[in-house]
Write a structure and sequence with these properties.
By secondary structure, the chain is mainly alpha-helical. The chain has one domain. Helix content is about 60%, strand content about 5%. The protein has helices spanning about 45-70, 80-90, 95-105, 110, 120-135, 145-165, 175-185, 190-205, 215-235; strands at about 15-20, 20-25. A hairpin with a 2-residue loop joins strand 1 and strand 2. The longest helix has 29 residues, at about 45-70. The radius of gyration is 18 Å and the shape is globular.
């Protein structure tokens, strides 16, 4: 989930971000971004307050939506397949594992010379707690007529959460920063790095007992368009004299918050 929006001149560089949401991997990609919609300005204090609300509401909702996918039992997001597998191996809760893995990934930022923001640290601390809190109050479900709506609700709410906390623009999540850092250090495309990393974590998580299924496929197909939609819905209006960049490129190029 690099942390701040780049100026327009950077749109032709190898990485383009909107609040840590990486939308185009290469300047040669056919899915170029259209940019710059200037909205009426909010005061600096109002913008900061709204951004903080969006950050923590989004992170909390992200953890809750992930818990819905866990309860549905029809397949998880790539990184949560790994988190679930590690939770089964260690006996720790998924939320605790998510937090530990996030902290470990954050340490990898050091050699990659990535700089964490408030959103990066909050991502590590809040999502796992919100996931465990939600899992503790949700009853077990077995009927497919309940599990399918839980899956759909989890995917949609995950898209809402993505739009909320990324447009707050306090920095990417640790896993997304890892991918952008690898891109900057290796010169490989974001698409290639993301695919390689996520296939690795899914395979490892599945081998450890994580759930891979139709929900994993649905999430992969739907989260890009949903995030693209809610990034526009929740975009924070700019301060006077600055533009709000709203990306409309192909969603499959995105790195999404994990």
């Amino acid at each position: 989930m690099a942390s701040l929006s780049k100026p327009q001149s950077d749109m032709h560089r190898s990485t383009t971000t909107t609040g840590g949401y990486v939308l185009s991997a290469d300047s040669s990609d056919s899915s170029a971004l259209s940019t710059l919609s200037t909205l009426p300005a909010l005061s600096t204090r109002s913008r900061l307050g709204r951004r903080l609300i969006q950050l923590y509401a989004g992170l909390t909702l992200y953890g809750a939506s992930s818990a819905l996918l866990v309860k549905a039992g029809l397949g998880l997001e790539p990184w949560n397949v790994l988190h679930q597998g590690l939770a089964k191996l260690t006996g720790l809760s998924m939320g605790v594992v998510l937090t530990i893995v996030g902290a470990a990934v954050l340490l990898l930022w050091i050699p990659l010379r990535q700089r964490p923001g408030l959103g990066t640290v909050s991502n590590v601390l809040v999502i796992g707690f919100a996931m465990d809190a939600t899992l503790s109050v949700l009853p077990g479900v077995h009927a497919l007529t309940i599990r399918v709506p839980l899956l759909l609700a989890g995917v949609v709410l995950n898209g809402v959460a993505t739009g909320l906390y990324i447009t707050a623009n306090f920095g990417p999540g640790p896993r997304d920063g890892l991918m952008t850092g690898l891109h900057q250090r290796t010169g490989r495309s974001i698409r290639l790095i993301r695919t390689g990393v996520e296939l690795t974590v899914v395979a490892t998580g599945f081998a450890l007992g994580g759930t891979v299924g139709i929900g994993t496929v649905l999430y992969a197909l739907a989260i890009g368009p949903l995030a693209q939609l809610f990034l526009r819905v929740f975009a924070v209006r700019s301060a006077p004299g600055r533009a709000t960049t709203i990306a409309t490129g192909q969603p499959q190029e995105a790195i999404l918050p994990r």
